[in-house]
Write a structure and sequence with these properties.
The protein is of the alpha/beta class and about 350 residues long. It has helices at about 5-10, 30-45, 75-85, 105-110, 140-150, 160-175, 185-195, 200-210, 215-225, 240-245, 255-260, 295-300, 320-330, 335-339, and strands at about 20-25, 50-55, 70, 90-95, 115-120, 130-135, 225-230, 235-240, 270-275, 280-290, 305, 310-315. It has a six-stranded parallel sheet, with helices on both faces. A six-stranded mixed sheet has the order 7-8-9-10-12-11. The protein starts with 5 loop residues before the first helix and ends with a helix. The structure holds manganese (II) ion. Manganese (II) ion binds near residues 121 and 173.
Length: about 350
């Protein structure tokens, strides 16, 4: 969205509406921060607002203001369907194609007669929304929600609660303000959020200092499994279901593991392959430094995508075959990876 559409959105929001806000499947800090921040903001205008996630999210996000009110589509399907059915407005945040909401929720969103608004920073947005605010240069959807509220002229409505939610998404999506998408504007927004009451060090503790001994020991296994292909400046990690089970794996436990591979000196491309017996797939996260686009790599070979330097992917074959495929593809990128 373009500033030109703001008056139309303003008039849409000028009388109380039923609003549903949805993030992508397996919501992360940016997805939960942005949806909850928008919920708190819209509630100040007396709209009926609910956040519906496709499925559950990690424990380390469950302290966010408003967390208790979030409905999960996979376990509260009928209630969610009713709410989506009577929604006047449907916000889809931090994703840009219905399938990213998962195959159960996607058709429900698609068939909804609501006015749809997309706010997102991923590449190649679909065109389902009446109002699309898509900007791949943004650090996070949370930074965009800040801009959205600002464009609506409501800076002063950003209170400690909204600021806290927005801070979480910007912090997590920028790897604590170090990824390429972090701009001086990002820091200005962060400065403003701290001014509005976001407690930066408390938020950091709540998100990052929540390790269980199981998670740290699983990290130990992941690091034991780390493999390096120095000539292609690539490193990767794998975790089997057996290894996950041995440490009582919980959603979110492997968050950030791939960054250890990327932190190796000289490495510009990293991947982690995680077996999921429940979903019958291998879940993959790709990370890169510099110009090597893991978004394109994942789109081309592993049914995924995301950003230039961070993308997800999946494979329907077993763990070893997936890794074999990965290794066999790499030489095609010899030129880009050895630069
Ligand atoms: Mn994001």
């Amino acid at each position: 969205m373009i500033k030109a559409q703001i008056p139309q959105i303003k008039s849409l929001l000028s009388s109380p509406k039923n609003v549903v806000i949805v993030p992508h499947r397996n919501p992360d800090g940016d997805a939960m921060g942005s949806t909850l921040a928008l919920m708190h903001y819209l509630k100040t205008y007396n709209h009926d607002v609910v956040v519906i996630t496709p499925n559950d999210y990690p424990e380390f996000l469950k302290w966010l203001p408003g967390d208790q009110s979030v409905l999960k589509f996979d376990s509260q399907t009928e209630e969610c369907k009713l709410l989506i059915d009577k929604a006047d407005l449907l916000f889809t945040l931090d994703f840009n194609a219905f399938h990213r909401a998962g195959h159960e929720l996607a058709p429900v969103l698609e068939n909804s007669n609501s006015v749809k608004v997309m706010i997102d920073h991923h590449q190649e947005p679909d065109d389902y929304a009446a109002y699309t605010y898509s900007d791949v240069s943004m650090s996070s959807t949370c930074e965009m929600i800040y801009n959205f509220i600002d464009m609506l002229g409501d800076q002063d409505k950003i209170d400690e609660t909204i600021a806290t939610c927005l801070y979480v998404g910007i912090m997590t999506d920028t790897g604590s303000f170090r990824f390429k998408g972090t701009t001086s504007k990002t820091h200005e927004v962060i400065g403003c959020l701290i001014e509005k009451g976001a407690n930066n060090s408390e938020i950091h503790n709540n998100i990052y200092d929540t390790n269980s001994i199981n998670r740290l020991q699983l990290l130990g296994v992941a690091l034991q499994n780390l493999k390096v292909i120095p000539e292609l400046r690539t490193a990767y990690i794998s975790l089997s279901q057996v290894e996950l089970d041995a440490f009582n794996f919980k959603k979110g436990d492997t968050e950030g593991f791939v960054n250890y591979a990327l932190s190796l000196k000289g490495i510009i491309f990293a991947a982690i392959f995680i077996e999921s017996q429940q979903d019958e797939i291998i879940k993959i996260s790709f990370r890169s430094k510099g110009d090597f686009s893991v978004n394109e790599f994942s789109r081309a070979h592993f049914n995924g995508g995301g950003h230039n330097n961070a993308a997800g992917g999946r494979s329907e074959t077993d763990l070893q075959s997936t890794i074999d495929k990965f290794i066999s593809i790499l030489p095609q990128y010899k030129h880009e990876l050895s630069q």
